[in-house]
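Our consortium's second objective concerns turning raw sequence data into structural hypotheses that experimental partners can test. To show how far this objective has progressed, the report includes one record in full. It was chosen at random from the queue rather than selected for favorable results. The single chain below, 168 residues long, was entered without modification.
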Amino acid sequence: MPDEFDTSGASDNRRGKHPVADGIEDVITFKLHTLCVIQDRSASQWADSMFDLSIASWRVLAVIRAHQPTRAGDVAEILLMDKSQLSRVIKQLTAARLIVDTTDPNDGRAVALKLTAKGTTLYGRVMTHVLERNEKVLAPLTVEEVGAFDAILDKLIVHSRAMLEHRP
C-alpha cells in the first residue's frame, strides 16, 4: 500500500489542507503545542511567584468561577484533566479556602464547587494579569487577525473534542 504522506524529506510534503511539512516543526499541531508549552511555562512562573498558585490550580479556580456552582466531573471535562489530578487541586484550593463544597442545586445528593469570597478576590487579581499577558502575546497581530485566530481556535477545539469523543 503506497504512503499517502511522503516523510522522506521531499519538498512537497502536502497532504490535504496542511501546508508543506518537511519535518515535525512544520506540522501545525506541533506549532500549537510549542506555543502552548511556551505560554504554560511563562504562566507557571508568574502564577507561582505573584499569586502562589500552580497553573493547574489557576485553571481549576477559573473554570469553577465561570460555571459555579459546578461538579468536579464537569471541571475535569472542560479542562481535559485527569480526575485524580483534579482531586489533588481541589483539596489544595479547599485547604487554601479559595473554594467550598456546596449542595448541587440540580441534585441535592451531589456536591458542587464554588468560590469563596477569598477565591473570588484572587480570581479577579489573577484574571487582570491574564488579560494583560494575553495583550502582550497578541501584540504582533492586528485586531482582525486576533478575531480570525480566536474563531479558528474555537472551530478547531470543537472539532478536536468531537474527534476525541469518537476515537476508535
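The partners drew two points from this record. Residues 1-51 form one domain. The mean pLDDT is 90. Both points have been shared with the crystallography group to help prioritize constructs.
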